[in-house]
Amino acid sequence: MDNHLRQGDRFPTTCASIVMGVRSHDGLKRTRSNEQICLVYWKPVYKYLRLRWRFSPEETQDITQDFFLKVLERDLFASYDPNKGRFRTFVRVCLDRFVVDRGRIANALKRGGNTPPLSVDFARAEEELTFAADMTDPFDVFFDSEWMRHLLGLAVEKLELECTSKGKNLHYRIFERFYLHPTGAPSYAELATEFAVSVTEITNRLGFARREFRRVLLDSLRAITATDEEFRAEARALLGETL
């Protein structure tokens, strides 16, 4: 697996479907599409393995690495059929099959050789997992919710990068303070005092950041879905709105 696949390599760079890109005749495009899919799915895969299969953190890291190495080596995602359900369901089913056949994991360890590992923050995923320790949802529902949570997180990171590159860092900071602060959302008047701007500026900057976040999220979602029908269904699930 290319060692350029890491959290800093933000997903996606285009709204073209990377799910369908895994079928490309261009080997580089196939590999890149698979890597971007891995970036979107590594965290829900890790958490799902920990809770569904009760592996230790260390063993879960190994299995997560091996699963995605198999994906890259065998172009596993190229076998996805959009007519048979959502792509995220396909990923979970592939993962369950991979775990059941533990012999493949042993073979993957041997095949891995000097292949660079998936460079992601497992420690952060483990910290987040403590919040799900007492979950009562079925495991498939948990996997789907974690996928959504991770996709939202990637969209927030991309929004920050775009705002910074456009000289709109204050727009992002206001967005972050209003939507992401652990103490909850302050009033517009409180934001105006905190950032030393007018309430009108808070309204305008927050409105800009909100629109940009929606755009980034929908672009990311379009890239990780295979059909327009799936895209619209996932948008409804994430945003609660019909496109």
Automatic annotation (TrEMBL):
Source domain of life: Bacteria
One Pfam family for this entry, by name? Sigma70_ECF
Per the database record, which ranges form the RNA polymerase sigma-70 ECF-like HTH domain? 65-215
Name recorded for this polypeptide = RNA polymerase sigma-70 ECF-like HTH domain-containing protein
Q: Which organism is it from?
A: Pendulispora brunnea
